[in-house]
Every structure is written in structure tokens, then in C-alpha cells.
Amino acid sequence: xxxxxxxxxxxxxxxxxxxxxxxxxxxxxxxxxxxxxxxxxxxxxxxxxxxxxxxxxxxxxxxxxxxxxxxxxxxxxxxxxxxxxxxxxxxxxxxxxxxxxxxxxxxxxxxxxxxxxxxxxxxxxxxxxxxxxxxxxxxxxxxxxxxxxxxxxxxx
Length: 156
What we know:
Radius of gyration: 15 Å
Number of strands: 0
Number of domains: 1
Strand content: under 5%
Distance between the termini: 47 Å
């Protein structure tokens, strides 16, 4: 059970006393930024980096849902300590962004707005109370944040 708790809490970020979802999303954003920066330093092409980002999103989504299912055996549905979904959601919001820390910070903030406010069907998914629902509402928030970020980049 310890490994599932470690995954579901994103290595303990879910235990932050205030705003654990924000802490989990911030960790996710920092991991993605620094990994992409490292891959760039080793001359990986943007196409390969995008592929690796997408692969990470898919793998962590699948692993995360399994961990969520396991911790639901001991914790209430979508307990505040479960933040792996925020990691996946923020990663989606970062797709296709230039490797610029300020863009990543802005995407993080836009994602959190969608994740907290839960507009445009996000709340409906969140109310499903399923293991996948825990993940899907953040995936949708990430998709909305991705769209907003792409519009912002096009306008700049």
C-alpha cells in the first residue's frame, strides 16, 4: 500500500497542510520544466521531447488511476491527499509550450483556475465519484488550460 500512497500523493505533496492540489501541480510543473530543459541540453529534438511528454502523461495517468483505486480502499473518494491527478493535468497544460519558465508558471496558474473553478463540464466529471473521474476532471482542466495557453502564445 505504501507505493500506492506515494504515487497518489505525488511523493508526499498531498500532505501539504494548505493547498495540497497546488503543491502537487507545482511539483508536476517543475518536474516537466526541468526534465524538458535537461533533454534540450542533451540535444533531443522538440518532436522527441513532445513524444516523451505524451508518453509520461499516458503512463502516469494509468499508474495514477491504479494508485487512486488502491488508496480509495483506505481514504475517502478523491481525498485531498490524492494529487497525482493534478500532476497529470498540469503536464497536459504544458504541452506545446516554448521552454520558458514564465510560460510554464502561467500554464500552472491557468490550470489551477480551471481545476479549482471546475467550469465547462469539469464539475460534472468530478461528481461521477469513480477512480477514473478523479483523474478525468484534471485531464479536462489541463486540456482547457492547454487551449488557453495556445491562444495566449498566438496573441503574443
